Each structure stands twice: as structure tokens, then as C-alpha cells.
Model the fold of this input.
Amino acid sequence: MQRLKRKQVINSPQPNSDLLSVKQLAKQAGISTPTLFRLWKRGEGPKRIKIGSKVFVTKPCYEEWIKELSEESRHATKL
Done:
């Protein structure tokens, strides 16, 4: 029988995971991590989840956010 560790720490998601760390998300989106946190503070940005003290975004939520941004951008250029 395998003994469970008392507390497991998640430093970063597994490579094939559907989760993006804040650092990974910021890099992929081309923005800084402080900018990402400012967006969340204003109620903007992709939906996020918190696991312990770490914040993650699922890839589908990131893709949905990018899609919304591109739709807003297209709509704004038509005005």
C-alpha cells in the first residue's frame, strides 16, 4: 500500500495538462503577469481556478477569452 503525502505542492501543471499557470498564460497571451492580475481585479480576463494558493486557467477558458477579445475587436473596427 502506497502512503499518501500529507501535502502535495503543485509548482506547475503537467505538460499535457489542460491547466495553464499564470506565468504560462501571460507568456502565451503576450502580456505581463501584473497585467493579468489587473484584468482579473477589474472583472476581466479569462475565468480562473485556484488550487491551494496557486491560480490556473484551463486551456478552453483561455481560448474562449481570446475568441471574445477578437470578436470585440472586429465589432469595434466596424463602428
Remarks:
- The longest helix spans residues 59-78.
- The helical segments are 22-29, 33-41, 59-78.
- The chain has a mean pLDDT of 85.
- The CA atoms of residues 9 and 52 lie 8 Å apart.
